[in-house]
Specification:
0% helix, seven-stranded mixed sheet, mainly beta, 123 residues
Length: 123
């Protein structure tokens, strides 16, 4: 059973940067693929980025490609999301997720979730 805790959210001006962190505990984190999703109130949870268990391969959704970068450090049991050139439309609650097995980009495929961290980008 993996527990995930996100941190690093906050309020930032458009064009600014934030780095989100996700700390994992309770399992062998290197066995799990990981991903970041985001959700705006009243809308479905949206895939943002994903990374394989080894960190060798990463995937980014088109709206964030070139601006966001997912990474992981299995020695630290952590996954990160570096967010640059932030836009007001990036405002959302950001969730870290993990699953045993290959990377997938649908929220329903992930078994473990953090509590979320709010990111607000002002114009």
């Amino acid at each position: 059973q993996v527990q995930l805790v996100e941190s690093g959210g906050g309020l930032v001006q458009a064009g600014g940067s934030l780095t989100l962190s996700c700390a994992a505990s309770g399992g062998t984190f290197s066995d799990y693929s990981a991903a970041w999703f985001r959700q705006v109130s009243g809308k479905e949870r949206e895939y943002v980025a994903a990374i394989t268990w080894s960190g060798d391969t990463t995937y980014h959704a088109d709206p964030v490609k070139g601006r966001f970068t997912i990474s992981r450090d299995n020695d630290q049991n952590s996954v990160y999301l570096q967010m640059n050139s932030l836009k007001p439309e990036d405002t959302a609650v950001y969730y870290c997720a993990a699953r045993w097995g290959v990377v997938l980009i649908t929220a329903s495929s992930y078994d473990y979730w953090g509590q979320g961290t709010q990111v607000t980008v002002s114009s």
